[in-house]
């Protein structure tokens, strides 16, 4: 009887349904909730009835997630292997780059360290380069100082850049593009150094420095003379590279590279007058009175002959300090100067008669003219000319 | 119309007995009724073939699926559904009249929900009847539990029990419902959230907040008895099994009086409702 009374006190099944469906009035809901808080039996019926609900769409969503998980397990070994390969590749590249940059840094002759504060001054005063900075001069990884570099004042003037550089630094400026690899710089510093490099190249260009670097002590006397006379001691110090452990000088640049950089090979170091095979000479770009870069030159008995890009010939007796143009006595455009080989001199019977040291000039058609008076007068090397 | 009036009288428009429903409240209550389901259920209870055909079309699959879901077994679910289906069809007769449970449906909730609820009620009743026949040792291992010596002095234990009991009883019905379903019944957050019509995270936050508040209130109540902070902390660290607190009994409390309708009152109300419904059917 007691049990029957307690059952009668339970809310109807219909009210439990209405409670679960939220369709009761607030008063009824409160009453049912009050009963449910006390009655485990009704709570059980209420929740068990929920088991009979049709499956929700969310249950169907579980299937794709299981599938995707299965796919993940299927692809995981491949993914892990790919990640490992990628990691190894990146590490290998980094090691190669680091080794390569170290070799370049050692070879590029950085004898004098940067003066204290020089980099900082550059970063502050040298403007940001334009957006089309060559990839070779791309800055090193950015650091926290990058925002400052970006915010640097935009007043790009080479003079301003050079004013921030101390004279010592000017004299001993190393190949600046390589500094970043050895000295981790901020982007602003790298950018500034790039500007510095450009300014330095301009300075060198304006001074018409024709620097001859030799490795062999047994080089031709004329080469030695030219090098000693045309390169100032400071610049020689800056550009004379100590021989590396492999015995290879950093300034032994390929000919094509030297030409590509605007320089030219001094063939006087290559002619047959006792120059050893391993003697190289690089002629730094220098301008002639015509305003053009020197195309070719030879030094003979203290007199220097030089061709510009248009084939005009100039002569200098003071090692390039002053030039005098020699009137044209050949056809076509002169393209090359060289010390006349012995065979050419001996063969002079066919054309010009030469005696002693002579200079040979070639035009664009490879026709030769020979001068035996230091370039003042020219005669065809053969009769057909 | 008479049928609806009888339902409105039976449930008093879902309002307290002493309150008179306004027209707006009456409209809201009537609007919440599932009249389509109600009419179908009544026609099925009367044994009309067309209604049964429609009922089978709409709810047969629902009924069996719900039974499978509740019983978690095909055979038990089919047995459960078949049993209810026979009863719904009115195979039982009383005084020469078909007796169908569908006649007790009043359209307060959906007919499908009502079917699920009736299935659940029958399943729980059957499960409990079966459990009563099992030996006690095979149930949950209560016989193996040995008495544990209390870790606190008897006085402190008494204080703690009193404080916990008082604070739990001071909770609101919904708060006690949350704690009961979560801690006593072991329902999941999702199940509770579905029943209450809120998100799982809301239930989770509510349960966590209630636990914190309860602990704080019990601590404060214990401090008010003169205990130090250290003593209170030690008491709150006590194993709950050391307490002689009938948490289940406290949480569930005494059966609510909300549905304690006096027998005489209930009889009168049912009589009135039956008369109204019969009058309505006669008019129909």
Structural overview:
The complex is a heterodimer of chains A (385) and B (284). By secondary structure, chain A is an alpha+beta fold. Chain A is 44% helix and 10% strand. In chain A, the strands form 3 sheets. A 4-stranded antiparallel sheet of chain A has the order 3-4-5-6, covered by helices on one side. Chain A has a 4-stranded antiparallel sheet with strand order 7-8-9-10, with no helix packed on it. The longest helix of chain A is centred in the N-terminal third of the chain and has 51 residues, at 57-107. The termini of chain A are far apart. The relative contact order of chain A is 0.06. In chain B, a hairpin with a 2-residue loop joins strand 1 (93-94) and strand 2. Chain B is elongated. Chain B starts with a helix and ends with a helix. Chains A and B meet through helix 1, helix 2, helix 3 and helix 4 of A and helix 2, helix 4, helix 6, helix 8 and helix 9 of B.
SSE sequence of chain B, one letter per element: HHHHHEEHHHHHHHH
Write the element-wise H/E pattern of chain A from the N-terminal end onward: HHHHHHHHHHHHHHEEEEEEEHEEE
Rg of Cα set of chain A? 42 Å
Largest sheet of chain A: 4 strands, antiparallel
The helix content of chain B, as a percent range, equals: 55-70%
Structure summary:
The complex is a heterodimer of chains A (385) and B (284). With 385 residues, chain A is of the alpha+beta class.
């Amino acid at each position: 009887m007691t049990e029957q009374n307690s059952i009668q006190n339970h809310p109807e099944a219909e009210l439990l349904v209405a409670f679960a469906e939220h369709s009761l009035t607030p008063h009824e809901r409160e009453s049912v909730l009050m009963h449910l808080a006390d009655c485990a039996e009704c709570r059980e019926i209420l929740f068990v009835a929920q088991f009979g609900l049709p499956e929700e769409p969310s249950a169907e969503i579980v299937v794709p997630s299981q599938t995707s998980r299965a796919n993940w397990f299927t692809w995981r070994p491949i993914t892990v292997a790919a990640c490992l390969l990628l990691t190894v590749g990146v590490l290998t590249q980094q090691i190669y780059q680091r080794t390569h940059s170290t070799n370049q840094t050692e070879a590029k002759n950085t004898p004098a360290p940067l003066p204290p504060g020089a980099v900082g001054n550059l970063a502050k005063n040298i403007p940001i380069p334009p957006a089309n900075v060559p990839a070779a001069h791309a800055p090193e990884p950015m650091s926290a100082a990058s925002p400052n570099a970006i915010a640097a004042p935009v007043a790009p003037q080479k003079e301003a850049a050079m004013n921030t550089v101390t004279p010592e630094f000017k004299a001993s400026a190393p190949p600046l593009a390589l500094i970043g690899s050895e000295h981790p710089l901020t982007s602003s510093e790298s950018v500034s150094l790039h500007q510095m490099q450009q300014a330095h190249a301009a300075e060198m260009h304006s001074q018409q420095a024709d620097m001859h670097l030799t490795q062999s002590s047994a080089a031709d006397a004329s080469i030695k003379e030219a090098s000693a006379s045309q390169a100032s001691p400071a610049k020689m110090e800056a550009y004379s590279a100590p021989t590396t452990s492999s015995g290879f000088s950093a300034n032994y640049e390929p000919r094509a590279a030297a030409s590509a950089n605007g320089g030219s090979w001094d063939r006087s170091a290559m002619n047959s007058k006792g120059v050893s095979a391993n003697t190289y000479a690089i002629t730094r770009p220098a301008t002639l009175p015509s305003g053009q870069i020197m195309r070719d030159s030879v030094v003979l008995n203290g007199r220097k002959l030089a061709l510009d890009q248009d084939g005009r010939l100039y002569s200098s007796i003071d090692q390039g300090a002053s030039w005098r143009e020699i009137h044209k006595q050949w056809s076509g455009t002169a393209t090359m100067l060289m010390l006349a080989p012995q065979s050419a001199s001996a063969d002079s019977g066919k054309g010009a008669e030469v005696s002693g040291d002579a200079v040979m000039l070639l035009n664009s058609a490879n026709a030769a003219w020979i001068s035996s008076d230091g370039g003042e007068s020219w005669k065809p090397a053969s009769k057909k000319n | 119309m008479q049928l609806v009036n009888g339902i409105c009288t039976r449930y008093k428009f879902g309002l307290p007995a002493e309150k008179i429903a306004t027209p707006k409240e009456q409209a809201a209550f009537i609007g919440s009724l599932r009249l389509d389901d109600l009419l179908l259920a009544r026609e099925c209870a009367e044994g009309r073939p067309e209604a049964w055909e429609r009922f089978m079309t709409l709810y047969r699959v629902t009924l069996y699926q719900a039974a499978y879901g509740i019983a978690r077994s095909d055979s038990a679910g089919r047995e459960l559904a078949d049993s209810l289906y026979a009863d719904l069809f009115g195979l039982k007769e009383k005084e020469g009249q078909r007796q169908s449970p569908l006649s007790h449906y009043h359209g307060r909730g959906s007919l499908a929900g009502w079917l699920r609820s009736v299935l659940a009620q029958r399943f729980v009743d059957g499960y409990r009847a079966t459990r009563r026949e099992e030996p006690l040792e095979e149930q949950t291992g209560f016989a193996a539990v040995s008495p544990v010596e209390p870790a606190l002095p008897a006085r402190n234990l008494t204080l703690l029990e009193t404080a916990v009991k008082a604070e739990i009883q001071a909770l609101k019905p919904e708060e006690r419902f949350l704690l009961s379903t979560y801690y006593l019944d072991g329902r999941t957050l999702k199940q509770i959230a579905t029943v209450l019509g809120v998100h799982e995270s809301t239930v989770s936050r509510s349960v966590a907040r209630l636990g914190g508040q309860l602990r704080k209130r019990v601590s404060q109540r214990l401090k008010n008895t003169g205990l130090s902070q250290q003593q209170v902390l030690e008491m709150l660290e006590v194993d709950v099994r050391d307490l002689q607190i009938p948490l289940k009994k406290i949480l569930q409390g005494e059966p609510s009086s909300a549905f304690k309708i006096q027998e005489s009152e209930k009889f009168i109300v049912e009589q009135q409702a039956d008369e109204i419904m019969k009058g309505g059917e006669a008019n129909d």
